[in-house]
Amino acid sequence: xxxxxxxxxxxxxxxxxxxxxxxxxxxxxxxxxxxxxxxxxxxxxxxxxxxxxxxxxxxxxxxxxxxxxxxxxxxxxxxx
Length: 80
Prior knowledge:
The chain is an alpha+beta fold. It has helices at residues 30-48, 72-79, and strands spanning 2-9, 15-19, 22-28, 51-58, 61-68. It has a five-stranded mixed β-sheet, covered by helices on one side. A hairpin with a 2-residue loop joins strand 2 (15-19) and strand 3. Mean pLDDT is 89; it is low at 75-80.
């Protein structure tokens, strides 16, 4: 299971941060939206332990901005 946080451009030319499909913060500059999304991703991962992907959606595709996953030591213990 993972959570996806998206940075998407709105119709007004400003940027929105969404958790899955729900808008979290709207009408930001691109830089502010990226910083907000990464911060939200880090905090969500730290609080839940769930893997989080932060991506930017644009007309030409999707760009991975950050990936927060469980530490390698937890993965090793879980596999044992």
